[in-house]
Design a protein that fits this description.
- This protein is mainly beta and 246 residues long.
- The protein has a single domain (3-245), classed as Porin.
- The chain has helices spanning 3-17, 185-188, and strands at residues 26-33, 37-38, 41-42, 49-57, 62-70, 84-97, 100-110, 122-131, 134-141, 155-161, 163-166, 169-179, 190-202, 205-214, 237-245.
- The protein has a 12-stranded antiparallel beta barrel with strand order 1-4-5-6-7-8-9-10-12-13-14-15.
- A hairpin with a 2-residue loop joins strand 6 (84-97) and strand 7.
- It is globular, with a radius of gyration of 18 Å.
């Protein structure tokens, strides 16, 4: 997908879900990454992706937003036809008690015209708790999950920590477990892990480097037959990203 196509898709999604709010409640971001890894699995066949998002803050901690990225994995599946992912989400953040934060909401992963059966488009409910440096998050699918048959009620649980090490550097270690229900359960379920170092360059610009890996099935998580590739999409590798927030 060309860059203008992605930006047009993101703008359309934002106009669909976002009400008219003051500019002070708005934030946006755009970025480029050497590999779009989602829960440890490459969505771009280990190649770069253009990404961007918009968020609106609402009263009482409520928020809504949209995010988009170029992808390759659906086009790599015979019969698939989508080169962009659009995420639409909304939720509420606050504190359970002083020092213990929460974040709950719903997230829709939309793959326009993906033509897969079952559809790759997926809806999840999520809830997270943050205490100090630590965050735990649980996401539960209320639809089939990313095109896997009979996979409703699949879930993902992850733990991460955020360490501000000074001079604009932040280190984030992460581990997660993806459970895919249904016939593909044994092959599709896996653990992922990463450690990310981000540097704030000021004026809304940041760069990051990450080491990302999984213990996923090396025969299941490969590009589709249309890609003519047997690359393992969950292999341990480095990922570099640059992001601008406005």
């Amino acid at each position: 997908m060309k860059k203008p196509d992605l930006l047009a898709a993101l703008a359309a999604a934002a106009l669909t879900v976002l009400p008219s709010l003051s500019y002070a409640q708005f934030s946006g971001n755009i970025g480029l990454t050497t590999d779009y890894r989602y829960r440890g699995i490459s969505q771009t066949r280990l190649k770069p992706a253009l990404q961007g998002g918009v968020d609106y803050g609402l009263p009482a901690g409520f928020y809504i937003g949209a995010w988009a990225s170029t992808i390759k994995w659906i086009d790599d599946i015979p019969g698939g036809d989508s080169s962009v992912e659009i995420d639409l989400y909304g939720g509420v953040k606050g504190e359970v008690v002083p020092g213990l934060g929460f974040d709950v909401g719903v997230l829709r992963y939309e793959y326009p015209s993906n033509n897969l059966n079952p559809s790759a488009s997926t809806t999840e409910l999520y809830g997270a708790l943050t205490y100090g440096l630590l965050t735990g998050k649980y996401s539960h699918a209320v639809t089939n999950t990313f095109g896997n048959a009979d996979s409703k009620n699949s879930f993902y649980f992850d733990l991460s920590a955020t360490f501000d090490v000074g001079s604009g550097f932040v280190v984030v270690p992460h581990v997660g477990y993806q459970k895919i229900k249904g016939p593909a359960e044994d092959a599709a379920s896996y653990t992922d892990y990463s450690i990310t170092l981000t540097k704030d360059l000021g004026a809304g610009l940041s760069v990051s480097g990450a080491i990302v890996g999984t213990d996923a099935d090396k025969d299941f998580y490969v590009p589709g037959a249309d890609a003519n590739s047997s690359k393992f999409l969950g292999k341990t590798a480095g990922v570099l990203s640059v992001k601008y927030v406005f």
